[in-house]
Amino acid sequence: MKKLLFKVFLVAIGIAAIIGCRGAPIYNVDNVAVISSTDKKLSMEQVKTAIIRGGANRGWAMKAAGNGLVIGTLHLRGTLSVVEIKYNTKSYSITHKDSQGLGYNGESIHRRYNSWVQNLQSSITNEMSLM
After folding, report:
1. Which of 70, 71, 83 is nearest to 113 (CA)?
2. What is the pTM of this model?
3. How far apart are CA 81 and CA 59, in angstroms?
4. pLDDT digits (tens, 9 = 90+) for 27-59
5. Which one-letter DSSP state was computed for residue 49?
6. 3-state secondary structure (DSSP) of residue 11
């Protein structure tokens, strides 16, 4: 009887793990407006600085990769997330570039990735408002 209960317990844990780890549609940020607190137009350098600071505040390693492009890398809990952040003086976008350990299948990814990108977006927007 104990063996049967143990097997049922293991199956229940397995099912809960599968349900809890389902992927979610990948969250990309598309053309978010660049706005400062004074509604003053920011320069390309100021936008880049806000992106780099915003990412660094959330633990992302940010690297300028050319005019209008920053690559963000996050190593967290045994996973890897890499995003491309394209920007100009009017808007910025964050898109998935690569990931490991997050179950990315071309359309969906672990829900933690999406929350990390949403937090990154919020932090970048906050930094822009401080400019």
Report:
1. 83
2. 0.80
3. 11
4. 999 999 998 878 789 999 999 999 999 999 999
5. H
6. helix
